[in-house]
């Protein structure tokens, strides 16, 4: 690969002129620009991205703030994996790359005095990297830090948590609407004793899905006893534990809406271990439409989210703020009910 000096010599211009072509192109005449760009292509010359970032105070990097502590199961959730693929693909298409920012457990991060518990120091650290913007994925406890990011002036897009500011917005799914459709499906199938296994307390999608569940039950004129609302954490083990509690009730539910597919799979395992048949004895509906949902036996009825689409929408929002100086409104992506064999009409 050629050097900047070799490009300059072949073009008959100074090194400074070549640098301006790639960093401040409008300061160079069109004719010279075209010559330099053609020679650079022929020699496979690539400007030093780090130097360009320092010169322009910008970079082609978007920071991803996400608690990836290996002791927490959240980072392995299939929903997040597909979301990240959509985010990375959309950013790469526009020449941007993701920089995974360290968690508060990182020794490197502690060395610069930054953690999500100390958001001001964290914001200062992101500025030292000259990041173009930030994508924020909430672990359920990051609200105060995300509010600090929203006030920082750096373009910020949060996923599944409400963050607003002059340079901040968020992307989520229609969680409440999806839950309503799930319950309506179970009501139409003849169920009147419908329970729910929620996500973790303090989580925005969890709260919205519970609100949708309650709204649809009220719409159908059905009661929601306290014991029919059991809290989980979006993961399989909590779904098993919650289902065991529901099965043990004096009058157990005939259907359960789970706020994630992972919990629904756990509920399915618990039901099977108790000798119950799904959907003959208890119907199950999940949320997310992860790959496993179609592979379990019986296949899982679920509310599908456009997981890659959420990531792509987050990318579009942060790039809009970077390039257009405009903060787009929050994006709420639609969901759709996917009916499979884990739910069916009760015999008349």
TrEMBL record:
A Pfam family matched in the record: Peripla_BP_3
Keywords attached to this entry: DNA-binding, Transcription, Transcription regulation
Residues of the HTH lacI-type domain: 2-56
UniProt xrefs under SMART domains: HTH_LACI (SM00354)
High-level lineage: Bacteria, Bacillati, Actinomycetota, Actinomycetes, Pseudonocardiales
Name of protein: LacI family transcriptional regulator
GO molecular function terms listed in the Swiss-Prot or TrEMBL record: DNA-binding transcription factor activity; transcription cis-regulatory region binding
Organism of provenance: Saccharothrix variisporea
PANTHER family: HTH-TYPE TRANSCRIPTIONAL REGULATOR GALS, LACI-RELATED TRANSCRIPTIONAL REPRESSOR
Top-level lineage group: Bacteria
InterPro entries found in the cross-reference section: HTH_LacI (IPR000843), LacI/GalR-like_sensor (IPR046335), Lambda_DNA-bd_dom_sf (IPR010982), MerR-type_HTH_dom (IPR000551), Peripla_BP_I (IPR028082)
Domain HTH merR-type intervals: 1-18
